[in-house]
UniProtKB/TrEMBL annotation, chain A:
Residue ranges that the Swiss-Prot or TrEMBL entry lists as coiled coil: none
EC number annotated for this UniProt entry: 1.14.-.-
Class of enzymatic activity (EC top level): oxidoreductase
Organism: Streptomyces atroolivaceus
Family the UniProt entry places it in: Belongs to the cytochrome P450 family.
Entry superkingdom: Bacteria
PROSITE patterns: CYTOCHROME_P450 (PS00086)
GO molecular function, one term: oxidoreductase activity
Keyword flag Iron: yes
Gene3D superfamilies: Cytochrome P450
UniProt keyword terms in alphabetical order: Heme, Iron, Metal-binding, Monooxygenase, Oxidoreductase
Protein name: Cytochrome P450
A Pfam match: p450
UniProtKB/TrEMBL annotation, chain B:
Keyword Ribosomal protein on entry: no
Disulfide bond as UniProt keyword: no
Entry superkingdom: Bacteria
Protein name per UniProt: Ferredoxin
Record-linked SUPFAM superfamilies: 4Fe-4S ferredoxins (SSF54862)
InterPro entries: Fe-S_cluster_ET
Pfam families (UniProt xref): Fer4_15
Cofactor(s) this protein requires: [3Fe-4S] cluster
Length: 411, 84
């Protein structure tokens, strides 16, 4: 039973602030979130682009409680599932895994996790490190100038996903080119949609080819085809959709983290000097960059049942959005939360989410960031921005992955 | 420091590997990526702290730290210590 004093989502007719809001600085959460939290507490009300009111969670303790609460649903197939933008609404048609609740979610997730275990990631990290080195060397040969997103971040992220899925080496070029189109700033919505269709067609062909192979390779698609498809626990369409969802979830996120981390370090010379001076601390540095930048800013949920948190009464059917960026700056959990402190060593951030959907690719993402950043800054000691920092363009509030479009550099 | 026992609910585990990253000598992932305990009781101060950190970080609430049997401290399943 909720207390009578509890505030409901539809209470009052006063105008509500927008959610999501635009970052004013690429590496700081929108200042409006802090104002709201200071004025109203860790759970506030706001309005989505389509006029729908939503709860917005801004505090760490409440977020932790809610993200493991089974009454909060990720079921994108519900017609009333909320969305922070029209583009996300379109993506939400691809419901597999990330848009499912347990037990359906668990059944799919269990088929994937062995490919992402800490041990398997360590095996893949060698190849990630080698590829990052090649990309940095190519930048050095061809530049200056260079551009971090297209020259390093996107190709590295695509290489990693190829490795996970088991895309044959000779197809990496095509896969990389098409997946870059999904994210590139110069590309129209139509071109991006075309690229996604091309990738789906490619993956369909690849799955068919793998079905005919008598000696399966060691990629995730090989396992899914020869274990799950063969025994009938997954359909061919499931396998393809899982391949696509890994690409959609892992590509832009990691690329954006590498690009934005590079910018952030260049803008914080003292931290950059510390980063260069201590290669052994790179793992900690990556963890802090994840917390500080929180580019996967907004976990979307819907209340499947009534939930009372503090004096807030969330009703079944209410939209609940969690701003991981603001949550990761909670002063009750992180000392001097707004300072970038590469030696901080705090892993209890929600940059990868929390609860059963916590990022399955997180250890790969860490490996990619660590290789890209250490090699970039050690092999190019004079690295600097090639444009004034104010000209670096921030992605709009409603893009699901926060960050910057591109990062021209010189040395 | 009284010894504690780590209990892993393998049905809840979602294989994010946070526990392995926290303490690779206490936790592992099996062939399927599911948590595997490498030790029964944990008794040094450092390891108890690491086990508690893993419990706190586990995104699926799959780990529980309990006093070793014989120590029993009631049925309050010691939850919610903050600020790992
Ligand atoms: C730094 C880079 C990355 C960030 C910041 C990130 C962030 C996130 C977040 C916040 C979630 C939780 C979404 C939710 O709770 O609704 C998530 C889930 C997911 N991520 Fe990542 N991610 C990254 C890299 C990757 C990579 C490299 C892959 C795969 C190759 C990947 C695959 C996935 C998948 C499949 C899910 C859904 C898991 C599930 O629903 O069980 N991510 N990610
Ligand atoms: S941290 Fe939790 S969910 Fe992740 S592997 Fe360990 S027990 Fe499983």
């Amino acid at each position: 039973m909720s207390r009578p004093s509890a505030v409901g989502l539809a209470a009052g007719t006063e105008p509500l602030p927008d959610f999501p809001q635009l970052r004013q600085c690429p590496y700081q959460p929108p200042p409006g979130y802090r104002d709201l939290r200071e004025a109203e507490g860790p759970v506030v009300r706001a309005r989505l682009y389509d006029g729908r009111p939503t709860w917005v969670v801004l505090g760490h303790a409440v977020a932790r409680e809610l993200l493991i609460d089974p009454r909060l649903s990720s079921d994108w197939s519900r017609p009333d599932f909320p969305s922070p933008s029209p583009r996300r609404k379109a993506i939400q048609k691809a419901t597999i895994l990330v848009g499912m609740d347990p037990p359906e979610h668990s059944a799919y997730r269990r088929k994937l996790i062995s490919a992402f275990s800490v041990r398997r990631t360590r095996e893949l990290s060698e190849s990630i490190h080698r590829r990052a080195g090649e990309l940095v060397d190519t930048m050095l040969e061809q530049g200056p100038p260079a551009e971090i997103l297209s020259g390093l971040a996107l190709p590295l992220s695509s290489h990693t996903i190829c490795g996970i899925l088991g895309v044959p080496y000779e197809d990496h070029g095509y896969f990389e080119e098409q997946s870059a189109l999904l994210v590139s700033p110069q590309v129209t919505e139509d071109d991006a949609t075309g690229a996604l269709m091309n990738l789906r067609t490619y993956l369909t062909g690849l799955v068919e080819r793998k079905e005919k192979e008598s000696e399966p390779g060691d990629g995730l698609l090989d396992t899914l085809v020869h274990r799950d498809l063969a025994e009938g626990s997954l359909s061919r369409d499931d396998v393809i959709r899982l391949g696509i969802i890994l690409l959609m979830a892992g590509h832009e996120t990691t690329a954006s983290m590498i690009t934005l981390s590079t910018f952030t370090l260049l803008q914080n010379p003292r931290q950059l000097a510390a980063f260069r001076a201590d290669p052994a601390g790179a793992g900690l540095a990556v963890e802090e960059l994840l917390r500080y930048l929180s580019i996967g800013d907004v976990a979307m949920r819907i209340a499947a049942e009534d939930i009372t948190v503090g004096d807030v009464a969330i009703r079944a059917g209410d939209s609940v959005m969690l701003s991981t960026a603001e949550i990761n700056r909670d002063a009750e959990v992180f000392d001097d939360a707004d300072d970038l402190d590469l030696a901080r060593g705090a892993r209890n951030h929600f940059a990868f989410g929390y609860g059963v959907h916590q990022c399955i690719g997180q250890n790969l993402a860490r490996a990619e960031m660590e290789s890209a950043l250490t090699l970039l800054f050690s092999r190019i000691p004079g690295l600097r921005l090639a444009v004034p920092a104010e000209q670096v363009e921030i992605k709009p509030a409603q893009s699901g992955v926060q960050g910057i479009y591109e990062l021209p550099v010189a040395w | 420091m009284s010894p504690v026992q780590v209990i892993a609910d393998t049905d809840r585990c979602i294989g994010a590997g946070q526990c392995v990253l926290t303490a690779g000598h206490l936790f592992d992932q099996d062939e399927d990526g599911i948590v595997q305990l490498l030790t029964g009781a944990v008794d040094t101060e450092g390891d108890v702290a690491l086990a508690r950190q893993a419990e706190h970080l586990c995104p699926a609430a799959a780990l529980k730290i309990q006093p070793v049997a014989g120590y029993v401290a009631g049925n309050d399943a010691t939850q919610g210590q903050r600020g790992a």
